[in-house]
């Protein structure tokens, strides 16, 4: 069922780690104008969303000054 495995010499394994190919990969294709514009718009949208959420969320994080004044509930007004 199982085939006999032959041992691999250690020199071969060490040599495989150092192997470098002399084949160069093909040059990368240049992006078209539409692709570059799309990437810029995507990045601009993400940055605008982060800035907008910061601007909208900042008032919610500020301390509420009206909470320092004592408040009466409606139940205390009905006696």
TrEMBL record:
<protein>
    <submittedName>
        <fullName>Uncharacterized protein</fullName>
    </submittedName>
</protein>
<keyword id="KW-1133">Transmembrane helix</keyword>
<feature type="transmembrane region" description="Helical">
    <location>
        <begin position="40"/>
        <end position="61"/>
    </location>
</feature>
<keyword id="KW-0812">Transmembrane</keyword>
<keyword id="KW-0472">Membrane</keyword>
<feature type="region of interest" description="Disordered">
    <location>
        <begin position="59"/>
        <end position="79"/>
    </location>
</feature>
<feature type="compositionally biased region" description="Low complexity">
    <location>
        <begin position="66"/>
        <end position="79"/>
    </location>
</feature>
